[in-house]
Amino acid sequence: MAISDKTRKMLWGRSGSLCAICKRKLVVEATATDEESVVGDECHIISSRSEGPRYDASFPQDRLDSSENLILLCRVHHKMVDDQTETYTAEILRKMKLDHELWVSQKLDEVPDLKPLKIRRLKNNIPAYLTRLTSGKELLNLVLTIYALYTDEDELKTEEEVDLVGNFLQTIRDLIDIGNDLEPADRVKEGFGLSQSLKELEHAGFFVFGGREMQIMEGGGSPKPSAWPVAYLRVVRTDNNDIIAIDMGESKKKDLKQNDPDDRPSASVNSH
């Protein structure tokens, strides 16, 4: 499973885009030369991994990615609570989460005419083409820096294709969920594994294309709009007519025509 868009928006909204421990703003404003930077993580109180912090085999699997099991923290305090699990137990984190969200709610009640939370798209940020992904490192760099991933695939014809493509997309969603927990060595291993998966897909007659879009989150408790990065991932047959080759000097780069921006496939979401 993965954190849903609805759960993610609820967590950020109820937390006021602030760390539950230090109250630090988790979206750094853009500069004259760079985009906004997100310095917050959606942290699991009970880890979904058996070797993860505060893992509890008795905790319902279908509630691991629910709002009740997530707390919004800056990256410093995320690492602290995951390193010091004897101090920051599940009970203590739940109390911190409850106190913080209550504090945010009380603060928001003091603000008149609070605008509803919404995601806005900018035409100049919508990718017209998706670029073919040929390495696991390239794919990781795309999906580990986003809040939402929109996936699509060509019609599959056999059970083998269903298993191959389905397992690949599920792996991507799982990586998004645990991305910020990956140590450098784990990133290298996951990148290598994704490279092998891309080769298997190509051998079976599929290419993988991806692209990134920076959307804007407005309203809620934030006085200014903040960045909401998303990505698109498509698994298409190598003979798909949407594939085009763009001449780039001595080499050609394969791109894929993007779908109508207002007709997106269903989305899966990033975790902490």
Describe the 3D structure.
With 272 residues, this protein is α+β, with helices and mostly antiparallel strands. The protein folds into two domains: 5-109, no CATH class; 118-269, no CATH class. Helix content is 32%, strand content 25%.
Order of helices and strands: HEEEEHHEEHEHHEEEEE
Please report the distance between the alpha carbons of the first and last residues.
13 Å
> In DSSP terms, counting alpha (H) and pi (I) runs of 4 or more, how many helices?
6
Largest sheet: 8 strands, mixed
Instruction: Write down how many β-strands occur, each being a DSSP E stretch of 2 or more residues.
Output: 12
The coarse overall form would be globular
Low-confidence stretches: 261-272
Helical coverage, percent range? 25-40%
